[in-house]
Amino acid sequence: MEAILTTLKAIIDNFGSAIIVPFIIFIIALIFKVKVQKAFLSALYAGVSLMGFTLILGAFTPIITPMVKNMSQVMAGITGVNLNTFDVGWQATSVVAFATSAGMIYLGLGILLQTILFLVKWTNIFQPSDLWNNYSYIVWGAMVIFKTHNFFLGIACMILLNLYSLFISELVAKRWSKYYNYPNCTIIAMHNVEPAIFAILFDPILNKLGFNKLKLNPKSIEKKIGFLGEPMTLGFFLGMFIGILGSVNKLGTIAGWGDILEAAIATSAVMALFPKIASMFAQAFAPITEAARRFMGKAGDREWYIAVNDAVGYGEPATLTSGLLLIPIMIVVSTILPGNQVLPVVDLLAIPYMVQGLVAVYKGNMSKILVAGTIWFSLGLLMCTYTAPLFTQVAMAAGFAIPAGAAMITSFNILGKPMLGFVFLAFLSGNPVFIAIAVAVYAAMFAVFKLKNKEIVAYLDRQADKNESAEEAGV
Percentages helix, strand, coil for the chain, rounded to the nearest 5? Predict the structure, then answer.
């Protein structure tokens, strides 16, 4: 068994989503009796597109990251606030998760569980196509095991978090698929789909306050200000804005303005190139979608979605714009939020991943995304602060080196999850009553969703349409 798990870990470590997803697409296409040539092209489209996303983000990240770090340092210097918990990012957190014994176990157990749940129609999300993001459950369970010394309690925590994640993903699957224009696709990563629940619950309040009337989305901006609102131009000015904020101590130098303009062009490039690669990625699913409809027509009317890595939505205009605007907002919030001890740094550039649930629910209404994101991610900072001591111990036990000057570490993206954090706390307590409540909440939400599926999905569509003007809707 250990040899199998080690091999599985090696596959995940060495074959990224650009290899695993195309392979799974090829197999699914063949199951639905798509011709081998078409199945191969579908897989190749997916692989090329995912690699394209990776290359763009790989080039974009090192340009923007120094700006974000400098912004954090400048803000800390202005306020004089000493935040002793450093955000090491989701990448480092995944390394810690997969380095634990629980991580090794859940690599196999998670795939088995997720496949069975899909085959028995417990869920309509095919999760095994996004194996990498299983570390999001593992890190919470590993902390439970480390604290309680109860291995089975930790595994049970992972399983329940996985079920919560599947529920939220299926709840917003149609919205995500429609908004991002990827047929029968959705995101499953728990750390990025979780805010969708808050978006849904908070939406009626935002509408009462009139935020749905603001129509602040890429289409409306482009209509109002012409070429200045085009994604490429908007990206340029947005990148310049981030560049200036991140280079305030170098504004009087040529080098400083070189960095600012580089950030502007880089952001513009992401805005311009992402839609082109996205259209290619969508092509990968066309043959499968068509064949699946024929197949499902014979086998029933099941509507299912394949989980894809959330990198495919990163560069969508409303997503990237909202995500980048939230960077300076969250830096300011971190210095004034009572009780917070976290300095968000590395994961700030992950915010365009983190807002995708909000973007899909609010149909790109950036005024809502910014308000809801600020509130939810602020609560996330407090969850990070609370869990940082335990996560730091787990990371040190796994051999992770704590950065110089940091008393503790965390991941703003992975551990800043208010709702799922409370599920974790129930298991951490070991109290059967609290654990039973966490299970009961999931069971109640799951039962209501399954009984009222069509009504709930229709409600989410109606709510989303309130963020769109008659002209944008084509009326």
Answer: 80, 5, 20
